[in-house]
Amino acid sequence: MGSAVITARAAATFEPVGRSVATARAFVRDTLQGWGYNDVVDDAVVLTSELVTNAVVHAGTAADVLCLRSGDGVRVEVADHYPEREVPLQSNGLDFGSPDRENGRGLLLCAALASRWGVEYSPTRKHVWFQLDLPDRPVGIRSAGPVLPTSLLPVTDQRVRVAVVQIDSTGAISAWNDDAAFVFGHTAEQVTGKQFTDFVAWPHTPGTNTGIADALQLSRWEGSYGIRGADGRTIAVYSSHLRVRDTDGEPSTVCLLVRDDERAVLQSPVRAPVSDASSDNRTADPFEVFIGSPAPDDLDGLLQRTVERARDMLDADAAFLLLATDDETELEVRATTGLPSARQRFARVPVEAGTGRYGSARMPAVHEDLTAVPGAVPLLTDTGMRSVVTVPLKVEGRLTGSLGVAAEGAGRYTNEEALRLQFAADRIALAVESARLGELERLRRGSLSFLVEASDLLAGTLDRDQTLALMAQMTVPTLATWCAVYTIADQSSEPYLSYVLHEDEDLIDGLKALLSKIAPPDPVPTPGARVWAAPSEAGHRAALSTSTRSLQHDAPLSMSTATRTTLATAQAVGGETVVLPLVARNRVIGMLTLGKPSDDHFRQEILELAEDLSRRAALALDNARLYSERMAISQSLQRSLLPPGLPDVPNVEIEVIYRAAGEGNEVGGDFYDVFPISDGAYGFAIGDVCGTGPEAAAVTGLARHALRLLAREGFGGPAVLERLNAAILDEGARSRFLTLLYGELWPQEDGSALLKVVCAGHPLPLRLRQDGSVESAAEPQPLLGVIEDLDLYEQEVVLNPGDVLLCVTDGVTERREGSRMLGDDGLADVLSTCTGLTAGAVASRILRAVERFAAEPASDDMAILAMRVPEPPLV
């Protein structure tokens, strides 16, 4: 301390435990207050807290704290017993590292707050010291304010009159002194018994709901408002309220009022920030003095630094900071110290008055003993804290948050601490709100990108199971730790657990088993997330039951796998669980359930994002359901239009390959059939209805069933097709033209086969002989469904052993790539290479040739019917 004379000293040693930090803060605060150094107490406590933390927590040794008093200031030294740990020396190029590190911030604060500081070494220890100079004030003046010229002193009218008004518990005036009558013009008889609010002109600030009634309910309050005088004018007054009770225990409020220009008589002195003792005499930024310089550039870091500084400033055991939601109806826990932060983070409580609510969030409040008012500060329930002081964070009159500190002992805080904490809150409110808005903007941009990506993924599939999987995978772990999707088939069905996902794959089975044992959430269509407590309660019961059984049956030293799984599942569902309805087309089709691990809560922004996702997911899931139903109907109809199987024709091999174009969502217009007509005779057909879809399917069904019926009635080929043509024309506007190859087959005793064929506008059948030659086996005739009078005839074809008859639809011959088309000649060339192959091998080779002809998938239906008379076995 140079040549300064040391007039007092105090020393103490603190053990290397976390609680020593708070004890050291109390030691320094009590010492400096005892010396009358109230002006530097807060800065000294903050610096001591950081340096002792470095010693007992980070260095892991005991800490020696020495306070030295002199006439112009105080010097505090903090020493540890770990000389091997390096401490950076003070120099022009000093690098403290990141200000957001857990250790090393004490040196940054020393540089920001102390008049002088340094690091000193000895053979057995090292210590950091800092010097805080007292403000340059006249001797004997502590907090009376600066000396002012006479011309600047407040002007009073004759003598200072202090109006004393007493308000009973109903808000009525019970006492009104002579000064009140003089200042406001109302006599005591005129106002006694009337409501005080009848005379008050309260300055309602936009964005707040605080009124005179709220101010009268506080234990102590100071501020400005107006009183309406007898002449109708509003007189601006400065008021100090004190809440008291009489001997019968009835509460009332005593109000001391002076004219507003005489407020110095009543107003509590405002504690000015400590001036910066730097060489350039610049005024320190009050925000940086409280937070430290540089301030964290992220919201979470800023909030955490704020609660730590608030705790240190009031020598508290805990501190917390809550931020208001956009509509200011709820407060959300964002930072705590000295409390189980993992359990409380993002918990929300309503702002309005009532049990379990922050009734005093909009004004400073001091709770001397929480046990006397249970639930006054919901965040501190069951934490052991008793003394609490909370102050609002306001920006332009709008509530943006609440800052509070708490202590384990009762009666630790008074209105003086509330004013000091409010002073700090006013300095940081704007920075916190700016950081909060920045974070909110980043969250909104991220949410928009998330929803765009989610919409693209959900729109990219029409498969129900894949949609369920996408819903869960998009929420875990981005929005929640685990997710369960319930689906509802129809209005009469109960919700069904369709999909479960956890960020830890090992917990999925246990989570699914747990959810399967509890009743699903009610399918309420009300939008928004609602809390569902059943999973957490079920997990708790399962864990308790498992632990009890383990203790009753001579449990081994290590838990069984089943026990560990049960406990892990209980931990996974122990936090907040919310349910969002999946509503599509005004119907609840399911529920999206999101969960957090033990004692964790969802942020409001996350719930809003989940709600947006649930709306998109519900529509995608319902579209997938509709598509699945349509595809199932289409496939069922398609199966009904194709024969159930092929008959065994003696001495003739028959193979059919059918490919419908598309992804199964359309009924093909091509069809085939092979069926017995009578003993020894078989009918076969292959046709192509114009177009696809339901209209084409109707004609396909009509043609296939009519062919069987007419052929079995004994009609020949031409007669069958003529009657089918008439039936198609009878459909009127729904009719479609039809190309059809119909024939009848008679196996012969000599091993050959006789065919009678009618080709009505269809691609001509091709005959492959044993020598490899290919020729048409029929002549073209008019197609069906166009004209009424048809003159059809049938042609006979004999298939000798080894011959093949190939029948195809135009999806084969019209296969294209660019300007090239396979055509009849290309098909004949492929067929000519099939000599000696079975009917099945012939059909497969034709299909491969068609598929390889073009790179793009086929756009038309294809049917291939191959019939072959096998060669007799060699003897």
Description:
- This is SpoIIE family protein phosphatase.
- Keywords: Hydrolase.
- Pfam families: GAF_2 (PF13185), GAF_3 (PF13492), HATPase_c_2 (PF13581), PAS (PF00989), SpoIIE (PF07228).
- InterPro entries: Bact_Sigma-Reg, GAF, HATPase_dom, PAS, PAS_fold, PPM-type_phosphatase-like_dom.
- With 875 residues, this protein is α+β, with helices and mostly antiparallel strands.
- Helices cover 32% and strands 25% of the residues.
- The chain has 20 helices and 34 strands.
- The protein has a six-stranded antiparallel beta sheet.
- A hairpin with a 2-residue loop joins strand 16 and strand 17.
- Helix 16 runs antiparallel to helix 17.
- The chain starts with 5 loop residues before the first strand and ends in a 7-residue tail after the last strand.
- The relative contact order is 0.05.
- About 6% of the residues have low confidence.
